[in-house]
Design a protein that fits this description.
265 residues, mainly alpha, 8 helices, 82% helix
């Protein structure tokens, strides 16, 4: 059972709003400090959830699709190359053409950024945001459960992503208007990824076979190379942060079980 278009649109709007809210949380007095103290736990929870989705759902579904559709035309390493390609594509756009940054740190006075660097980094995040949308849409075309789990995985890291975007824009000397525009642009790009791949997948049945492993590589990169290093960086010696990664994995399995019971199959 696939997720219908109107639900995909709602998923896209929800993750876009999470981006905007994550950026705007910087402005009310005192709220952003409290939020930042919880940020490392949310990052860890999202990282664990995304890792579980990638290895327990996306990778097996990718292999299953290729074995069922392309086993006679292509070797099994082909989808794994696409998986690797998605990972490397994210590395290229986020950290090769864009400067490295730590989530939320640019808001401090000793981390001021040139405006060009801030917007270059946001440009790199646009590619990642687009494939977030593709991931939700491609997973939804495989089956309902995977689509919902992928949506939750993306949603969990959209608040910290919005916080990151907002902190970079503030560090570049801009204000709430620019933060809102930047976070809304990244959120809209995710929605564009959802709708764009829905249109492609609806008219080209084999598109999901190629898109799912690429999107899986992007998801793996976000979890393992973006979020986990930030969890380690911010967590220090606090074992609760590390335990939050395991809590994210446990949350995945709990929701996986509940969806299995609700949907069946």
């Amino acid at each position: 059972m696939e997720i219908p278009l109107y639900q995909l649109v709602l998923f896209g709007i929800a993750v876009a709003l999470a981006n905007v809210i994550g950026g705007l949380i910087l402005f009310p007095t005192g709220i952003h400090r409290k939020y930042k103290s919880l940020l490392k736990y949310l990052l860890a929870l999202g990282a664990g959830f995304m890792l579980a989705v990638t290895f327990v759902e996306v990778l097996p579904k990718t292999i299953e699709l290729w074995q069922g559709t392309y086993v006679n035309q292509a070797p099994l390493y082909a989808p794994l190359i696409l998986f690797l390609g998605g990972y490397l594509l994210t590395q290229f756009f986020e950290h090769t053409i864009a400067p490295h940054f730590h989530l939320g740190e640019e808001v401090h006075a000793d981390h001021l950024l040139p405006a060009s660097s801030a917007y270059t980094a946001i440009g790199g995040l646009l590619i990642h945001a687009f494939f977030d949308g593709v991931s939700i849409s491609a997973a939804s075309q495989v089956d309902f459960r995977l689509g919902v789990l992928m949506f939750i995985a993306v949603f969990l890291h959209k608040f910290p992503e919005g916080f990151t975007i907002g902190s970079m824009v503030l560090a570049a000397g801009k204000g709430i208007r620019e933060v809102t525009m930047s976070t809304a642009l990244v959120g809209a790009t995710t929605l564009a990824g959802v709708l764009g791949f829905y249109l492609i997948g609806s008219n080209l049945d084999s598109a999901v076979v190629y898109a799912l492993p690429i999107a899986g590589g992007v998801t793996l990169y976000v979890a393992a190379s973006d979020l986990i290093p930030e969890v380690n960086h911010h967590g220090g010696k606090n074992p609760l942060v590390s335990l939050s990664v395991f809590a994210g994995v446990a949350l995945f399995f709990a929701l996986h079980f509940l969806l299995h019971e609700a949907v069946g199959g």
